[in-house]
Amino acid sequence: MNLTKENKSIKDNEIVLDYIQNIYKTVVERNPYETEFHQAVKLILQSLIPIYVKNPTYMENGILEQLLEPERVIIFRVPWVDDEGKVQVNRGFRVQFNNALGPFKGGLRFHPSVNLSIVKFLGLQQIFKNSLTGQPIGGAKGGADFDPKGKSDNEIMRFCQSFMTELAKHIGPDVDIPAGDIGVGAKEIGYMFGQYKKIRGSFEAGVLTGKGLGYGGSLARKEATGYGTVYFVQEMLKDHELSINESTVIVSGSGNVSIYAMEKAIKLGATVVACSDSNGYIYDESGINLDTVKQLKEVDNARICEYVNIHPTAEYVEECTGIWSVPCDIALPCATQNEIDVQAAEQLVANGVKAVAEGANMPSTTEAIEVFIQNNILFGPAKAVNAGGVAVSSLEMAQNSMRMSWSFEEVDAKLQEIMKTIYQNCVDAAEEFDKKGNLIVGANIAGFKRVADAMLAQGVV
Question: What are the binding positions for NAD(+) in this chain (predicted)?
Answer without folding.
Answer: 225, 256
